[in-house]
UniProtKB/TrEMBL annotation:
SUPFAM superfamilies in alphabetical order: MetI-like
Record key words, sorted: Cell membrane, Membrane, Transmembrane, Transmembrane helix, Transport
Annotated protein name in UniProt: Sugar ABC transporter permease
Organism annotation: Rhizobium calliandrae
Family per record: Belongs to the binding-protein-dependent transport system permease family.
Amino acid sequence: MISQILTAIGAMIFGVAVCAAYFLFSNKLLEIIFPTKEGGDVHRIAVNLRRRGLIRPWLFLGPALILLGVYLMYPVVATLILSFYGPDGNHFVGGANYAWAVNDTEFRQSIFNNILWLAVVPAACTFFGLVIAVMTDRIWWGNIAKAVIFMPMAISFVGASVIWKFIYEYRGGTDTQIGLLNAIVQLFGGTPQVWITIPFWNNFFLMIMLIWIQTGFAMVILSAALRGIPEETIEAAVIDGANGWQIFWKIMVPQVWGTIATVWTTITILVLKVFDIVLTMTNGQWDTMVLANLMFNWAFRGFDSGRSAVIALVIMVAVTPIMIWNIRRANAETKGR
């Protein structure tokens, strides 16, 4: 244990020392290439200072950009190449893996489930987060409510799955139902069900878990945005006779629309990569398979690197338009300022 701590401390000291040395060396190099000694040509000194200012940020960002490019681009290119090879990654099979994906029933089911998750979870999290943010800002115990709602964010997806397994738990025969949902159903005279095995609807039972976790995130971000709305705007709307519903939809929502889009985008990207909940709750059974779990199955259970690479590329292609849209929207807002 002590040796590991010392190794970690040594690595941090070494890293800081290397960064400091690079900083000093790059500055010294700039001074040598673009000198600004006193007594020289004033115009030349001004030009060199301007060049230093243009080059210096790239010198500092350069290593990070190179490492980021390697760690981002290399996996993408390697995965693309791998998608044209067989299970062992050594035999070229052309577009066979893509043909398999188009014709495979489980792959199509995974696509459908991902679309279902995308349609429900981001919209539900954003809506509930916005509503709760508005409601809790108007009550004295709002901060306590926010803390309680935000708490699930501190729980891992696997931990949340264990909690919700007890909620959906089913006991057959005459055994007492210990699952909260089945206990409530039984209390009102209904028939207990194995909820997570009911095709189609079981997807929604899994979605509820992610909504429960991510609503707190949406609430905190949107609450901060709502507090940025000028009080004068709301007071003017009240004076003009607007009711609470009109103030919410016509005053608040338009002014925090950029934040709403950001929250929705963030949760959408998370949903496209959802894995832990499905693996822990159903392992993809009963028509609950999603793309990330299917990729995992082919990579580590079916030992087919080609097919898993195809699925990984599909996930990447699905995420890319959302990222591009979000970047363009952010750039447009920056230009507007």
